[in-house]
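Reviewers of the previous submission asked for a worked example of the structure-prediction workflow described in the proposal, so we include one complete record here. The input consisted solely of the amino acid sequence. No template or homolog information was supplied to the procedure at any stage.
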Amino acid sequence: MFQAIIVALVVFLTVGGQELLGFTMIGRPIVIAPLIGLLLGDMTTGLLVGAALETVFMGVVNIGGASSAEPGLAAALATAFAIQMGGRVEVAIALAVPLGIIGLQIKTILYVLVVGPFAARFDRLAAAGDATGIKKLHFGLWGLQWFLYALIPFFALLVGSKATQKVLEMIPDVILHGLSIAGGLLPAVGMAMLMKILWDNNVSVYYFLGFLIIAYFKVPLIAVAVMAVIIAIVVAQGDISKMKLEKEIAKKLTGSGAVDSSGMTASQLENEAFFS
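From that input alone, the workflow returned the following structure tokens.
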């Protein structure tokens, strides 16, 4: 019972806390596993499991619809099971991947069932300007959702690792195969959702440039990422220089009184300076 409460509390504070505070990375295996190992009296096992699972889930960052597994829950249960089994890290790690995949599905279902029905309520509170009501509803739903989510490791540890493994083995292969296919499609769906939100015709040329570099020139992703950083720095420097120039022009024009700048934008002031 004590171990179940400890692990459930850690999942609530780390995985749930990461969702509340942003991408603080406190929900990563390299953080959760050693923490549970420390609280359960086996720091060595916690470090071993955390390092191993961080390697497994290193590329897993669930953003929007681009999601595949929940590494935090997997790390918590794998560490606790490994300690229960006397340090059998390899067995616990084998359980971590299916636990992470199923944990993400449960997390999504809870979000839809707990938070989803209150979307219209948030709209009404926002329309009424009730900031206090929005805060109360926000934190209340957060607490309820992650309390329910923390019950998963709580009951999983109560029944034990062997029972949990048997439940996983009872899942039909066709369902696991479907989950595998869905997991492969989710990154593409997630990217499409993110592009729909972020798409801007002014910067679309960079998207096609990246696609061309990767698809036809076979440049590694790391090299493309470095190119993107360089382009971003160059564009940012250009924007900063343009802003400074607009401010200087506006200051000169308003100071000399040559142009009535009231109601004129910085771009209009720049045009006036160019044509004068």
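The longest helix spans residues 221-256. We consider this example representative of the routine output the project will generate in years two and three.
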